[in-house]
Design brief:
The chain has 152 residues and is an all-beta fold. It is built from 1 helix and 12 strands, in the order ββββββββββββα. Bound molecules: zinc ion.
Length: 152
């Protein structure tokens, strides 16, 4: 299926080291369309499209290259007007600039790159998803997004 949506790169271009779609062992199944943006610790994380904040977790300060850390990722989700959601993972401890139900504009800084959760190097894990049920942990599918590699 061809992507019809349009999102901007959620990291300032001058801070982006590379885009990595395939290297993480976690990008399988539901997460197959997730994208990792490799960038230094503390890099601003930007809203990839305008929308409303639907989830904010930034109270974790642990992480590492082990699935045991899976549930310790700080993350934010944004709901967009087309019914899709974007999600930003591994955010730094207490780095969130937004709160639940805030409206954000495209390019607005929402948090900073951290090392929380299951992560092997500082990066932003980004995914666009739709809900297939009501449970944020299980009832979703990631969807393909526009070709970021072509716009950097
Ligand atoms: Zn990832």
């Amino acid at each position: 299926m061809k992507a019809k949506n349009s999102y901007t790169i959620p990291i300032p271009k001058e801070m982006l080291q590379r885009i990595d779609r395939m290297s993480s062992p976690a990008h399988v199944g539901k997460l197959q369309h997730a994208i990792d943006f490799i960038a230094p610790l503390g890099t601003p994380v930007l809203a990839a499209a305008e929308g409303v904040i639907t989830y904010v977790k930034d109270d974790s300060n642990i992480g590492g290259p082990d699935p045991a850390y899976w549930s310790y990722s700080n993350f934010i989700t944004i709901k967009h007007s087309n019914g899709e959601f974007s999600r930003y993972d591994h955010l730094d401890f207490k780095s969130s600039n937004v709160r639940l139900y805030d409206k954000v504009q495209v390019g607005e800084t929402i948090a900073r790159v951290g090392l929380t959760g299951y992560t092997y190097l500082p990066h932003l894990h980004f995914q666009v998803f739709i809900f297939t049920g009501y449970n944020i942990w299980t009832d979703f599918e990631t969807i393909e997004v526009n070709d970021f590699e072509r716009i950097i």
